[in-house]
Amino acid sequence: MRPSSRGSPEESGHDSGSRKRRRNWPTIPRYRLIEEVGSGGMSVVFRAFDQNLGREVAVKILHRHLAGKEEERGRFRREAEAVASLRHSNILEVYDYSGYDAEEAYIVSEFIHGPTLREFAQTVGLGLPEIGVMVAERLACALSHAHAGGIIHRDVKPENVMFQDDGSIKLTDFGIARMVDRDDRMTQTGALLGSPAHMPPEIIAGEPVDHRSDIFSLGTVLYWLACGTLPFTGDSPAQVLKRIVESDYRDPREIDPRVSDSLAETIHKSMSRKSEDRHASAEDLRDDLASYLDNHGFGGSQEELARFFEDPTSYKQEQKERLLELLFAKSREALLDGETAVAIRALDRVLAIKPGHEEAFKVLDDLRHRGVSPLAKALAAVSIMALVAFAWLVPWKLDEHPSESHPDPERQQDVTGHDEVAEEGDAAARDDTQEGLRAPSTEPREKRSGLEATKTAATVAPRDGQAPEETPTVEPTVPEGDARRPVRILVDTWADIAIDGETLQRDREARTDLSAGSYELSITREGFVPVNETLEVTPGEDKLELRHRLVPQPAAVRVINEQNAAVSVNDKLVGPATTGGFEIPVTFPELPDGRFEYPVGVTLRIEKPGYEEQEHQIELRPGQVEEIVVELEPET
User: Fold this and answer.
1) Based on the domain organization, do 526 and 469 belong to the same domain?
2) Are residues 108 and 130 located together in one domain of the fold?
3) Same-domain pairing of 156 and 124
4) Residues whose CB is less than 8 angstroms from the CB of residue 432 and which lie 6 or more positions away in sequence, other chains included
5) Containing domain of residue 17, as a range?
6) Distance CA 79, CA 175 (A)
7) Eight-class DSSP state of 403
8) Dihedral angle, C-alpha 146, 148, 150, 154, nearest 10 °
9) Disulfide-capable partner of 558 in 187, 517, 596, 627 (CB 3.0 to 4.6 Å)?
10) Which is nearest to 404 in space by CA: 164, 533, 230, 539?
11) Is residue 13 located within the same domain as residue 155?
């Protein structure tokens, strides 16, 4: 897949609004601004044309209300100086800088035709954890180069990583980078700069920061790439930071059984609470990841990523089959060498990737009955139980992560950054899925969704050196003559689809077989109005198909301003801002085909006579409440 380059505002069908905004665009000598492509709390980014060298560039301009502040302007200068000193294929290249005394503070860099890593994960999906390892290996290369130049990034996160149109990875936004051994008071302010979900514990605790802080942040990104959710989540930034300090996160193998033991160990090491327990350098982490890829049949990460980016769907299927073949071959070799436990772990991953792999099931079942050690029998039996349960819970599309890699294909790309609230909701939903795996429903058979129709005899793994306990075989409890009817549930966007509180699938579609009876169907997604209804299943052999549409909950912008300034939304006056917060509801338009458009962008203008007006570009998702604290500067 090759993302098309962004067209001009006129080409996008927004010419009237764009012309109005264009009148307010700054004038930058030598560079002709073409299109605004992104905006944040500190700056706005334009696609532009370098009229001297005849090339397309990106121009990042500091907001005018910040340009007069020495600290903010100094931070902006630091980014230009930091990146301009680096030359690496995986780091965004800086071409030019306005200088400290220029009226407009700006940075000129190469323009990237492609999505951020988060956008790509949300719209396309990464598939196997090994593809995420490739991305992390490239980022470790970039950080190794930056650290060798004495620069610590301090804000490594998916939004600061971009895919170039040739599949190469670019690390961007060194806006809060620190230059090692340089006397700069801006690094000593005590402010928490960075993204809470990826912030290393030493920054939170006010401890010394070094290159291993970037290794921690990259570890959180690797965790997210491998299993589709962030390691540290919570109901508030404070709760997230507390969990980071306490190293409170779930083992990635619990979230996605396709994560191997060796990859989990690498993740744990990179995210160690104490920096001295992490990889000694980004180069060490890179070598660790490169070795992992070599051992799993993946060549150079850059070449593999280029192939993946060209055709993600075909690549994911091709690599899935390649990995299955390699793992099954490793299991056979281990059995021949008498390494039964190694063989079982390889087969575990085979079944996690492809639950219906008959040969793997056959080998595990054979081991369970063969004259091998009690521990090997226990491992084989537990593997069968756990992977059958995993297959029941997630029976379709296992080539994707059970998380953001099952996105709504029509979902528009997010160019404003990370939605922590949505991420936390995703994590909570995923916790429910895992809870269902650990504790199957105890509802009567006629009220169940069919996920517990049969079980295999199991041997419980020994604890503290005790012999394994044999558990009785649970035979199928389907009454004689009980006819089960196939049910297919379709939703217009990805969601958690559950029957009687038991998650079937986190996707746009779920299938199961149900006996005649009444069931409670729930379809939920963070930010959308939930669907809760009683499903009546009557006897029959034909497929029962249900279709549902989720309606997005309104979003809101809360503007806090102690100067009682006027607030306009998309050039329409809505009221005065207040100290307590002026909340502006935002709804999501319905498209002609019945879907809803989201996220939506709004332009806020805050103004008051005698003060410099401010303008903010905001992207909102369903249910999101964005709070902005505004302080207007007096006109000079």
Assistant:
1) yes
2) no
3) yes
4) 496, 503
5) 1-113
6) 5
7) S
8) 40
9) 627
10) 230
11) no
